[in-house]
Amino acid sequence: MDTLTHTEQVQNLFVKNISQIRGFIFGLVPDFAAAEDVLQEVFLVITRRADTFEIETNFMGWAYGIARLKAKEFIRREKQLPDLLSEEAMDALAEVGPEDETGWDVRRQALADCLKAVAPKAREVMELRYVQGLLPGQIAKEVSWSMGAVNVQLSRVRKYLRECSRRKLATEGL
Questions:
Q1: Does 30 map to a domain?
Q2: Segments forming the whole domain that contains residue 84
Q3: 117: helix, coil or strand?
Q4: Over the range 35-47, which residues count as b (16 or more CB within 10 Å of their CB) and which as e?
């Protein structure tokens, strides 16, 4: 059986942690398409610089540092995008660093459990918004609802998921 090269091991760490890295980037660059572009740039940098990373060290800290720098570069290039964090705010956010991975897993599982209880049409609306990145007006056309109905549905489901997740996490002691 072939063993993985060092670069492949680092790439596997990226793939394993892509959800957290994507979420971190989306917190810095709140435009779905732009955040995905930054995520791809981060992967390329991580691949190019894989030889500088020691496998047994803090991958998420390293990846978040690269993501923060790539997000800053993006913001400098794309000044016309509204509601982007200042560089100072990004630096402060990056200093917080990655959370305990076990905590993320528990939170993700709590959210997944809560999402199972959401009505199928409401789940579809959430998927269109947060997985496919559609705007409420686009979702309204897709599901034949008014934009107001889509916004209300998104708000209600977010509130339900927030409360349900909090209850589940409270029972876990988080």
A1: yes
A2: 6-96
A3: coil
A4: bebbbebbbeebe
